[in-house]
Structure formats: structure tokens, C-alpha cells
Design goal:
10 strands; four-stranded parallel beta sheet
């Protein structure tokens, strides 16, 4: 009797780019064993993946008739599954359980050949200066940061202080931002709506990040990202392979959802009490230690 082909599994992922990237390897492992289609809020995380049969956006027309019907279906969101609703473990572990895997998997991303070629910062402003990607502000919404309920961000003055330290250490700093966010002095802006481009850059250049999405991309490409964390749970969200930093004891003002961090405020009126200067200096020093090719930088 002929071996029966497994029924296709349709996997739906909601949420921000960070969650979509984080789930890529686990989904790929399943797709190696059976046909898989993905319905995602950020389908770009799955483009060019040779194992996934098809990728669809959440708002594509008639998903039930065209994609879901007659197939197996699962939503990778632990909080919609009663079996895991009160599970305190890392949500990647929960997703692995939902997919029937014996362990969670790190993210994996695929770039098309033309993407590998085109994503090159080239000489920038100075061929001799090492490049670094710096994301100081959360990327999820257009509202001021105090209304941002998903991502964390630096105060503008603290972000500028870090950028100054990197520039003084010899780096050429590329600031990954959205078009409504402030461009820091002496930084080269990269507008992040073309997230495929930014993902490609994470495969090639050092990444210095606030607690936002693309340290997952750096992890997928085997790069060690330097990540400044606020209150986010270490057990649930951190990668041990990254360089993770958080001030202890945590400062009273964490980097998220504070009116004084409204981008509409004049930068000169913003307070710099988010982190201690000593901690900011240690963050800059760690970046220099990890990424600087200059032996004379201390």
C-alpha cells in the first residue's frame, strides 16, 4: 500500500516582526517533515524559505477557502491554547510544544541571491570606518513612545550619548528608524519600512539594539547582537548567545511609555534619567570590546 502523504499544516502567526522571526526555525523544522503554509502578520520573515510551501498575509482575501480549508490548522499563540494559557515557560518552548517538537529552535532566515548582493552599505561616508547598526527606538507604532505598548526605547538624549560614544570610538553608525522618529546627530539613517533590507544588513554588520525585534535576525544569522533590556523577562525572551545588558538595580524610569519621551518634545527638554551614566558608559565600552577592529581603542 502506498505511503499516504501527510496533510498540509497551515500555521498562523500574529504579533510583531520579532515573534514572526523567532518562530521561523521551529516552523522550518516542521516543514521539512510535512507540507506547511504560513499565514503571518509579517510574511517577509518567511520569504525565500525553501521548505515552506506558501506564505500569506493575515489580510489576504478568502484565506479560509484558499488556504485553510481541508488542511490541518494551528495558531502559534500560547495564550489562545488552553493547554498553555498559564504556562510560565519561554513562549518559544510553548510554541515548540504546540508544533510537536522536542525542543525550541533558534530563528533561521533565508535571503534570495539578489538580496544577498544588494544589501551592502558599501563605503558609506568613510571606507575606513567599521559599520554598526543601531536601533535606539522601538519600531511598532507611529504614536509617541509613551503610547507604544509593545517595544521599548531609549530616551533621545541617552540614544545620542550612545551614538556619540560609538562615533568617537571610530564607528560609522547607521541608525535604523521609522520615518517619524528623530535622526540622531552624526548618524546615517536607514528607514526600516524595508525590513527585508534591514534583515539582510543584520546578516553582515554588528547590531546594537534596544529591546526590539531585530536581535532575532542577528541570532538567525549567527551574529552576536548587543541588546539593552528594560523590564522584559530574561527567561522568556533573551538569547544567551547575544550580549545582554540590563542595569541592576533597575532604574526607576524604564525605557518605555513615558510622556517625556514623546518625539514631539524638543530634545533639549528631555531628561537623561533613564539609565545611569556609568551604565551607558559600560554599554558603549562593551560595543567597543565586541566590534571594534582598532587595537588602540580603549
Amino acid at each position: 500500500m502506498a505511503k499516504q502523504t501527510p496533510k498540509k499544516l497551515v500555521i498562523r502567526i500574529d504579533g510583531g516582526l520579532w515573534r514572526n522571526i523567532a518562530m521561523t526555525w521551529a516552523i522550518t523544522e516542521v516543514a521539512k517533515k510535512r507540507p506547511v503554509s504560513v499565514i503571518a502578520s509579517w510574511p517577509i520573515a518567511f520569504w525565500a524559505n525553501p521548505y515552506i510551501e506558501s506564505v500569506h498575509w493575515l489580510n489576504d482575501a478568502d484565506l479560509f477557502r484558499n488556504v485553510i480549508r481541508w488542511n490541518d490548522y494551528i495558531e502559534l499563540e500560547p495564550y489562545t491554547d488552553p493547554a498553555f494559557f498559564n504556562d510560565a515557560t519561554n513562549w518559544l518552548i510553548v510554541a515548540a510544544k504546540q508544533l510537536g517538537l522536542d525542543k525550541p529552535y533558534d530563528p533561521v532566515l533565508y535571503l534570495a541571491e539578489h538580496e544577498k548582493i544588494m544589501y551592502d552599505l558599501g563605503c558609506g561616508q568613510d571606507c575606513n570606518r567599521p559599520k554598526v547598526l543601531f536601533q535606539p527606538f522601538g519600531s511598532s507604532v507611529q504614536d509617541p513612545i509613551w503610547a507604544d505598548r509593545s517595544y521599548r526605547s531609549f530616551y533621545v538624549k541617552d540614544a545620542q550619548y550612545i551614538a556619540n560614544g560609538l562615533i568617537n570610538a571610530g564607528f560609522e553608525v547607521y541608525e535604523v528608524i521609522r520615518k517619524w522618529q528623530p535622526v540622531l546627530d552624526w548618524c546615517i539613517p536607514i528607514d526600516s519600512p524595508d525590513m527585508r533590507m534591514v534583515i539582510g544588513l543584520c546578516a553582515k554588520y554588528p547590531v546594537i539594539w534596544c529591546d526590539s525585534c531585530l536581535h532575532h535576525a542577528a541570532k538567525a544569522f549567527g551574529n552576536k547582537a548587543l541588546v539593552m533590556w528594560a523590564w522584559t523577562d530574561q527567561e522568556r525572551y533573551w538569547y544567551e548567545s547575544n550580549e545582554n545588558m540590563r542595569e541592576h538595580p533597575m532604574v526607576a524610569h524604564t525605557p518605555m511609555r513615558l510622556p517625556m519621551n514623546d518625539f514631539n518634545f524638543d530634545i533639549s527638554n528631555q531628561h537623561t534619567n533613564q539609565f545611569s551614566q556609568q551604565f551607558l558608559d559600560s554599554f558603549i565600552a562593551k560595543a567597543i570590546e565586541l566590534y571594534s577592529p582598532f587595537n588602540n581603542i580603549k
